[in-house]
Predict the structure.
Amino acid sequence: MIVAEKKPVEEIIDYVKDFKKLLIAGCNECVTVCEAGGKKEVGILASALRMYFLNEGKKVEIDEVTLERQCDHEYLEEIRDRIDKYDAVLSLACGVGVQFMAEKYFSTPVFPGVNTCFLGAAEERGVWSERCQACGQCILGETAGICPISRCAKRLLNGPCGGSTKGKCEINKDLDCAWQLIIDRLKELNRLDDYEKIMPIKDWSTERAGGPRKVVREDVRL
Amino acid sequence: MRINYPGTIRIIRLPCTGKVDVIHILRAFEKGADGVYVVGCLEGECRFSNGNLRAKKRIEQAQQILDAIGIGGERAQMYNLSSADGPRFAEYAVEMTEKIKKLGPNPLKKAKEKMAA
């Protein structure tokens, strides 16, 4: 999922302090699961902002909505009939949702309520870690299901490097060396021979470095 | 025991303090409460293993928010006691009442009056 973190209330207040009618829009997908921008967080933020504005002597109307997704037209359309009522929207969706909202409702200011962090997994409750960098050319089949692009600090394709010590990375002793993990799992799968194969230079053209990317699937287009 | 405690307190019963969420605390302030305190079991003695520890974290989150919006985080507090400890319950009620009296009423009350005027 896309992992996000709540922005500090102070920062959010700074964005919206001059508006009179606000819509706080949550998203029911990733940000709900990582407890940063779901219905619950929308309620908390709305309550906090209502109290802030009242305490400041400002009359501000705040409405709450949590859409199924903010990265799809059909769900964003649900607020089209009332979007003009608002001076601004505070979107608690990931960066994708915030942008899609801004694109769709061009004349309404949209502000982010979360910091979008990475594509990751919930290791345990309250702990999320990165698992994918969306490089567009998946090599997990060769690396025993462990991604050296997202989990090796150097993105090495033929690791580990000399900085791997006792299974940990040199940049942080709490960080597992991805290549140690790969070797351990290849061993477990009796595929250690695969480790001997030198991986060719990766095709990075599908990565972000080549500019913003797009997937067009003619087979599913209408 | 016939112990007295201030009549300033409105008790809201919960199955466990683990039921408390940040929004419950914020809503209480929104509705005009001058202070909110949560009384849970002693740490390490939660019947449901860690409900009181969850409540503690949620109170901390609420305190941060209350500080950020100018209400004051010190108006929310977590207490722990044994359910058999009536005298301490009364003690905490007195302590919290005194603390809130020192802090004065919820600033939102004044703000509401000003708005209405």
Summary: Residues 17-116 of chain B form one domain.
